[in-house]
Every structure is written in C-alpha cells, then in structure tokens.
Amino acid sequence: MIKLLAAAGLITGICVAGIGAAANAGVVCYFLAASVAHIRARFLTSEFWVNCLGLLALSTFALITSYVPGL
User: Fold this and answer.
1) What pLDDT, in 10s, does the model give residues 5-64?
2) What Cα–Cα distance (Å) separates residue 57 from each residue in 12, 16, 27, 63?
3) Any residues with CB less than 8 A from the CB of 40 and at least 6 apart, and which?
4) Which of 9, 30, 53, 55 is the residue whose CA sits 20 to 30 A from 36?
C-alpha cells in the first residue's frame, strides 16, 4: 500500500510540483526505515546492499536534483 501511494504521488507530482517533492521525500524516508530494519534484523546480504541502499541512493539523488538547478 505504501509503494502504491508513493507511486501515485510521484505520478501526480509530474503536474503539481509540491506533491512530487513530498512524495519523493516520503520515498526517501521509506528506504531509510527499510535500511534501519535490515540492519536491526542483521539481514545484510546482497539484497540489502543492492536493493535497499541502491534505491535509497537513487531516490535521494532524485530528491536533491529536483531542488538544485542545473543538475
């Protein structure tokens, strides 16, 4: 459900800038929480490094580039 709402917010954000930024910040918070949960569960296999941290880096990069002109 969280991923569905995030996707809907990001798609809506194409037309409305504030909603897209809020949805992107929510996606970053989701992956931060997922990273903490993986670390606490000591589930540090390749899925954690590739999927969780990779998507956290990608969503953070998207959030930063949406605010910095020229990137």
Assistant:
1) 777 877 887 788 778 788 888 889 989 998 999 899 998 888 888 888 999 999 899 888
2) 22, 24, 11, 10
3) none
4) 9
Q: Confidence band (pLDDT; 50, 70, 90) for 71?
A: low
Q: How many other β-carbons are positioned within 10 Å of the β-carbon of residue 10?
A: 19
Q: Is 14 helix (H, G, I), strand (E, B) or coil?
A: coil
The tokens describing 11, both together, are 């798609």
Residue 15 burial (CB < 10 Å; 0-12/13-18/19+)? exposed
Give the whole-angstrom CA distance, residue 34 versus residue 3: 12
- Tokens standing for residue 26: 């929510």
